[in-house]
Write a structure and sequence with these properties.
Number of helices: 19
Distance between the termini: 82 Å
Oligomer: single chain
Structural class: alpha+beta
Number of strands: 16
Helix content: 55-70%
Amino acid sequence: MTTPTMDRDAAVETPPSKKSKRAARIAEAAGAGWKLMIFKVVALGLIDAIAVYAALVLFQSEQWVAAIAVVVVTGVANWVYFSRGNLPAKYLIPGLIFLLIFQIFVAGYTAYIAFTNYGTGHNGSKESAVNALMLSAQERVPDSPEYELTIVEQLGEFSFLVTDPDGDVQIGGVERPLEPVDDAEMDGGKAVAVAGYNTLNFSQIVANQEAIADMAVPLSDDPNDGSLRTPDGSVAYVYLSSLEYDEAAGTMTDTRTGTVYSDIGTGAFTAPDGTELMPGWQITVGFDNFVRAFTEESIRAPFLSVLVWTFVFAFFSVFTCFALGLFLAIVFNDPRMKSKKYYRLLMILPYAFPGFLSALVWAGMMNQEFGFINVVLFGGADIPWLTNEWLAKFSILLVNLWLGFPYMFLICTGALQSIPDDVQEAAKVDGASAWQIFRSIKLPLLFVAVAPLLIASFAYNFNNFTLIYMLTGGGPRDVTADVNVGATDILITMVYKVAFVGSKADYGLASAFSIIIFLLVATISVIAFRRTKALEELN
């Protein structure tokens, strides 16, 4: 017979032992471990696949440095994540990779381009420039023999499978000279298929007629031997160039006029009278782009004008936004002010909307013909807010004030509220006026917190591309300048126009301007931050 005491003991669970707890922890860790390992294998497998593809493409295009960098970085990442330990490195690797790609590589590549002539007409190698020149001057040989032609395709690339008049079969592509084929399938003395390639039928040839008609397959490695082209996809003819290239002498001769164009080290074949054959090729020009920026009058004058306006724009943007933001912060920080939270909400609304949308809205409001400001506020006046040089500059500063003062209002409000009240009360007891308290106490303490943000705001406005481009597009245009630049352009919009706007892009000069901008902003920031160290003594 059981007693109540025995029943109670049986109902109480036996506490787990140390061994059972340890086994449970090991089982739980093992369960999470294999899941984590599968995730790492899948994630790194995808990354490795992308890296292998990128490395193969880079190796194929002979970009050796970039290809080796991809392989090394991928190998280091795999070693870090599959090895035990190295916990700090596992957290640092993603950030370091993005820093390398989006900061260091971009800055380094920009610096490299600044020392080249890279741009329209100079964006490839000398070999590709020679081929392009030879193709552009090709004409069909009047007595050219007919080559029986079959269009074949491999991995999306078309090739010519030709049978010459002697019955020999050859195959070649746009960048692959003709080479003999031994195992072609013949039909009535014409090669119609070859192993590894797909033969195009009539409908496929018609669908790709334009691309096939533009093809020029070299007869040999010597571009002077000409190439094969086809008008209909069934027969090919020999085309020869009126330009003759002499690789040993580095010259290109126009056989029709006898003019000899020489490689004089400028990245293009140049005639004795200075005429250049385009396209040219990319070369290293040293500091020529920087010298052009400061010595060529047609570039120097607009560049210096833009430089001065950039400093003026950045300074007045920071000054006006800070002054208005500080004024409003002082007003709304007054304890006598009622319903402050509603007014503050209204004050930060311009900051809540995307800047480019606000700039577009203001551009519409300032339209000279049908803008809200001219039609409604000025009774139909014809005021050129965005097309007159000085009014456009004033308009930019006004719109930037609208967009920027809420930010300054917020940081000044926070800085003012952090100033102890007892300091101000002590100043009042000593007989200081409200202006003396603001000038000698509030403002210095305010600058301790705000000065670094003012420097950052200056650097931001120094490169405020969105506002300038959305509001005025940099205009009105300076027609006397040799580069595409306007009266309201700042350096960053000038760089954009030199690189991407217009019929001629000069990436080398644009990169040189970018380096100059970086040096200016870095120098100003370093000097300003050193000067603000004196404010730290006020804490």
